[in-house]
Design brief:
The chain is mainly beta. The chain has strands at about 40-45, 50-55, 60-65, 70-75, 80-85, 90-95, 95-100, 110-115, 115-120. It contains no helices and nine strands. Strand 2 (about 50-55) and strand 3 (about 60-65) form a beta hairpin.
């Protein structure tokens, strides 16, 4: 039985061909760096001021103007919808792969991510009275 007053053993697991005391890096990675089955990881990086709204399963979870060089990571197993106020001012990477151009500078666009795929929704048409 473990001594309740003693801290748990923090020795990293042994790596194949090495040991925890060999000075080599462990073969395991922190959970935040491991891809999870069915979980999308979306990375946003602003190249110019861009309003960004992030919706997870139709619920707004993030909304702000991202400044140049600012980044945001979103992870979800559900639907991710990203609304951009300046589609040309943001770089999007989905699960490590660049999405490419989603719109022009100053153009409002929405990008939707679901289970390993994405689509750029049609641009909103201005309403006429």
């Amino acid at each position: 039985m473990a001594d309740p007053g003693k801290p748990p053993d923090a020795t990293p697991p042994k790596t194949p061909g090495g040991s925890a005391s060999s000075g080599t890096a462990p073969a395991w990675a922190p959970k935040s760096q491991l891809p999870l089955a069915g979980v999308a990881r979306i990375d946003l990086r602003a190249t110019e001021p861009t309003w960004v709204g992030v919706y997870l399963d139709e619920k707004l979870t993030f909304a702000k103007v991202m400044e140049p060089a600012e980044s945001k990571t979103i992870e979800s197993s559900g639907k991710i919808r990203i609304r951009l106020g300046n589609a040309g001012g943001i770089e999007i990477t989905a699960n490590g792969k660049p999405v490419g151009v989603v719109g022009r500078k100053g153009e409002a666009r929405t990008v939707e991510f679901k289970t390993g795929s994405f689509r750029i929704l049609p641009a909103d048409k201005p309403k006429t009275e």
